[in-house]
Amino acid sequence: MMATAQADAITLNFHSGLTQSRPEAEHIDAFARLVEEKSGGELKIDVYHAGALGLREADILRTLQRGMADMALLYGEYYTRDAPALASIYAQGAITQADQHLDILPVIKEMYDDGFAKWNIHTVGGVVAPIFDVGLHCKEPVNSLEELQDKKVRVWSRHLVETFDELGIAAQVIPQNDMYMALQTGVVDCAYYLSTVAKTVSLQEVTKYESYLHPWAAAPWIFGISERALGRLDDNQRQALEEAGQEIWKTTRELAVDAERETLAREEREELGITLLEPFSDADVETFVTAAWKTWKRMAENAGDDGIRYYESVTQALSE
Q1: How far apart are CA 20 and CA 48, in angstroms?
Q2: What is each CA distance from 254 to 131, 176, 206, 234, 304, in whole angstroms?
Q3: For residue 7, with 0-12 CB atoms within 10 Å meaning exposed, 13-18 middle and 19 or more buried, which class applies?
Q4: Coil, helix or strand for 10?
Q5: I need a labelling partner for 81 at 20 to 30 A (CA). Which of 37, 62, 90, 168 fits?
Q6: Helical segments of 203-304, H only
């Protein structure tokens, strides 16, 4: 009987582009352990962190659709080439208070489930990303949109490039791995980045000033399995996969908003030698949000009917 059980056991490979130092990686590993426990050892997940399977993020939807990988950590903003509507589900500037995120999270999840299903990808929970403070990390004191006018800013998405352009501020997309060097060599003067985790990429070594702008509109990381891989599983294995995914989703949702975590992070950055300036003014935040929503809508319209539907669903939920 033991030999039969071992023969029936299935192992799925799981692609993640995140390094193991990221907090999300701990939750992915916990998901894999839960799947094995809940399935009684009949289903195992081998997680390949930091892109160890050699897959490109931009190609992941095609990769899963063709069954060339079993599972992956999915992030909608990465797929602007193949599924631009996914990038219009959520955007920076969408929220100005962290608690707003939890209110609209069910709507966001529903939109992602719909979008990934079009690629024959079934979703099984995921990681609700923490709502971190977003700030401007600069070499010189900057805490207003006016002071940013003559600065070059690093951002992480096309939407942000267009938002800052709307404000007359020069911005360019620079990958996280290249951000340190770009600041060090003067390619950019400031980095728009998640203040709470700035230490993990050593921003304190190349920037000395920081000012809070708004909370991160944190698109969740989704656990996706190809329909081909799903078709290989029996009912017990499917149930284990679903339950494990939902358990991680629930756990990370409860951890997402944490005012004490943000306060402690600020204290730590000061200990690292960072000068924390006054936050951007309410008027500046309103100006930024107005520009962000304008470019968000334009991005959704360019993505077609799905993009418009996703944008309208999320913004309606925010308005309520």
Answers
A1: 10
A2: 11, 27, 34, 31, 34
A3: exposed
A4: strand
A5: 168
A6: 227-230, 235-256, 259-271, 282-302
Long-range contact pairs involving 166-171 (C-beta distance under 8 Å, separation at least 24): 166/291, 166/294, 166/295, 167/287, 167/288, 167/291, 169/145
- Give the residue from 139, 103, 299 showing the smallest Cα distance to 215: 103
What does the DSSP assignment read for 282-307? Answer: HHHHHHHHHHHHHHHHHHHHHT-HHH
**In angstroms, rounded to a whole number, what is the distance separating the alpha carbons of residues 222 and 245?**
9
The one-digit pLDDT tens for each residue of the chain (320 residues) are 344 444 478 999 999 998 888 888 999 999 999 999 999 999 999 999 989 999 999 999 999 999 999 999 999 988 989 999 998 999 999 999 999 999 999 999 999 999 999 999 999 999 999 999 999 999 999 999 999 999 999 998 889 999 999 999 999 999 887 999 999 999 999 999 999 889 888 999 999 999 999 999 999 999 999 999 999 999 999 999 999 999 999 999 999 999 999 999 999 999 999 999 999 999 999 999 999 999 999 999 999 999 999 999 999 999 88
- Measured from the Cβ of residue 250, the count of other Cβ atoms closer than 10 Å reads 11
* Gap between the Cα atoms of 96 and 172, Å rounded: 23
**Rounded distance between C-alpha atoms, residue 94 and residue 139, angstroms:** 27
**Across 170-230, where does the E strand assignment appear?**
170-173, 190-194, 209-215, 221-226
**Residue from 162, 277, 256 nearest 212 by CA:** 277
User: Using CA of residue 86, residue 288, residue 275, residue 259, what is the dihedral sign?
Assistant: negative
